[in-house]
Amino acid sequence: xxxxxxxxxxxxxxxxxxxxxxxxxxxxxxxxxxxxxxxxxxxxxxxxxxxxxxxxxxxxxxxxxxxxxxxxxxxxxxxxxxxxxxxxxxxxxxxxxxxxxxxxxxxxxxxxxxxxxxxxxxxxxxxxxxxxxxxxxxxxxxxxxxxxxxxxxxxxxxxxxxxxxxxxxxxxxxxxxxxxxxxxxxxxxxxxxxxxxxxxxxxxxxxxxxxxxxxxxxxxxx
Amino acid sequence: xxxxxxxxxxxxxxxxxxxxxxxxxxxxxxxxxxxxxxxxxxxxxxxxxxxxxxxxxxxxxxxxxxxxxxxxxxxxxxxxxxxxxxxxxxxxxxxxxxxxxxxxxxxxxxxxxxxxxxxxxxxxxxxxxxxxxxxxxxxxxxxxxxxxxxxxxxxxxxxxxxxxxxxxxxxxxxxxxxxxxxxxxxxxxxxxxxxxxxxxxxxxxxxxxxxxxxxxxxxxxx
Lengths: 222, 222
Known about the structure:
globular, 5 strands, 7 helices, NADH Oxidase, homodimer, alpha+beta
């Protein structure tokens, strides 16, 4: 694996300057949830390298509960797409009629084109971490995995790849399609590849679905 | 607010080079869950700026469900500490006896020293995003908030601050202490301040509690 924390241990704590912070802000701003992918394959080892970086994420009690399942089998991919289509139809029916048409036009899945698909699970049964921090808030296991996904996402964007996170899926169905251990819980299903275009504004915002709000509205004092 | 996506919209998609990726890797590696804080106050506006950056996180359906509660009232802080102590005692009792002593010596909370404390909630009742992506996986609301916390964490570290995420708390008790709306669900309680020392290896690893595993163990193929 390219990323071995032990390789880097001898180094001094880094200082981060304004130029890095500016670029980090660009990365966070331009991350995007990608829906439109080119079909080009990723370079060899890219996925493994990105997962290595994702594994630097924090986890409750150092439990590292993330499990990355690379979905390559065409039949399983087709079954996941069917699951998405069924859930998407249901979601469409649940929308206000005035929004339903708009919703239908949002092409939400890169499931057809992305060369790489990764189902990411939380292993609720892991004994790594010895249960530390999980007694009162067991959901921190899933939060750790969500954060690892985001780490993967940022690392991918920094290398010029794009990620789309599909949540319009039935977790139990995906679990069955992929035949993973019972204790694993689906956190996210990711499409990974080269984006067709780089956009700064979220797709949902560009299409008039929703817009970002002012930060003042989410800060409270007690 | 310092961060206004509209201010940056005219710019071109950024390219990230190897030097930035190297520093990003340093940031991810040196992030650390900080437990030992100096008592120095943060500069004015730092918290608001960091929350502005955190709000660049992705969220399901652009719902932006994060709610940041700055906890400054001494009585409320004391009540949160009492909640931590009660939960910590319970966690201690739940540990294997051979580990209990080690656990007790892990000073898990910066709740005494950190100048800034932030309770972060997910607003499950928000209608922002119109429910998009939440029908089959409603827990994506909490995942969005966990990711915003991590964004705050990275931005803080890039400015030389440290964050400690306390999960040994009873969410209902903290909810009551802070008198927040019923629909809000606690995702994390954060200590923020200047770290006493910068460490690359996780505290739990240094103290022999748990160690990172090889990435090969978390990659599967289907």
